[in-house]
Design a protein that fits this description.
Distance between the termini: 17 Å
Strand content: 35-45%
Order of helices and strands: EEEEEEEEEEEEEEEEEEEEEEEEEE
Largest sheet: 4 strands, antiparallel
Strand order of the largest sheet: 1-9-10-11
Helix content: under 10%
Number of helices: 0
């Protein structure tokens, strides 16, 4: 699960399950970033306006007017940072996800039913579902945030990591510092040490907290598996592999990754995308020809942004 910060111009693509139209992206060649929710997707245009498509049962498919610098998608709601740094949320509000706090922000991250945002002074604010204490956060300031299904993570400049929210699997039992990067899965947490090694904590029923040795630069978590990029650009995966999530593509030129529920995506340095896992039709891994600058994995669909600024979408 990934976070977004305030912002290269490009087109988007999407593929996979399309039960709610989440793979019917808008036309255009001026998009700069994309994010995927459970059965909807959103994209940010170069002019700062937002486009939404897919499920609209809670109004998450109706973008607000105005200009924005960053976007994030939860299960059935969205949040965005306006160009002046203020927040706007729309969609499902049953847990208070739309009650965005005031202030100026530079980063946002969405859990399933809650949001985490960082103010420009480095302090963290949370809102939405609080059934597991997702909104009870320690004092900052912080330099990085991540959101799991119903918990949050934040990293301080000194490498200290704090976690809050549901802790039924130990996903909030953070090991001693320091860490240089963090990531969150469904109910497990991940961190990269200064020497590049990965340490994980939380649910380990499928080995998602048993990382391989090596030196890593990026890490993220899916439903019950983990995904990382090594310092040589190659990929590593561990944990649940029932749907082929850990049947990794070859190569050592990967620059970005994202983990969906049962499928994963990775962006190569030449702009091509690799997608694997979730073999059930319609595949979330079809229609990937092209050159891209951004990619996001949803529940069973994938959204990508081409170098021409257009959206490509597939799956569901």
């Amino acid at each position: 699960m990934s976070s977004a910060s305030r912002s290269e111009r490009t087109a988007a693509a999407c593929w996979g399950k399309n039960t709610s139209g989440q793979c019917n992206p808008p036309l255009g060649s001026d998009f700069v970033s994309v994010r995927a929710g459970a059965s909807h997707a959103i994209a940010l245009r170069q002019d700062g306006t937002i486009a939404c498509w897919g499920s609209n049962g809670f109004g998450q498919g109706v973008p607000p007017p105005g200009q924005f610098g960053a976007i994030s998608a939860g299960s059935s709601f969205n949040a965005a940072i306006r160009v002046d740094g203020t927040l706007h949320c729309w969609g499902d509000k049953q847990f208070g996800q739309l009650a965005a706090p005031s202030g100026e922000f530079d980063r946002i991250a969405a859990g399933s039913f809650h949001m985490v945002a960082r103010r420009i002074d480095g302090t963290i604010v949370c809102w939405g579902d609080n059934s597991s204490g997702q909104r009870i956060i320690p004092n900052g300031p912080y330099v990085e945030i991540a959101a799991g299904w119903n918990f949050g993570l934040a990293r301080r400049a000194d490498g200290d990591v704090v976690a809050w929210g549901k802790n039924d699997e130990g996903q909030c039992d953070v090991p001693p510092r320091p860490f240089v990067a963090i990531g969150a899965g469904y109910s497990h947490s991940l961190g990269i040490r200064p020497d590049g090694s990965v340490q994980c904590w939380g649910d380990n029923a499928f080995g998602q907290c048993d990382p391989p040795p090596g030196t890593f630069v990026k890490v993220t978590g899916g439903d019950r598996y983990s995904l990382a990029i090594r310092d040589d650009g190659s990929l590593a995966c561990w944990g649940a592999a029932l749907f082929g999530q850990c049947e990794l593509p070859p190569g050592n030129e990967f620059v970005a990754i994202d983990a969906g529920e049962n499928h994963a995506v990775a962006l190569r340095s030449d702009g091509s995308i690799e997608c694997w896992g979730n073999p059930l039709p319609p595949s979330a891994c079809e229609g990937l020809d092209g050159t891209y600058i951004d990619v996001a994995a949803g529940g069973n669909h994938t959204v990508a942004l081409t170098t021409e600024g257009e959206i490509v979408c597939g799956g569901g």
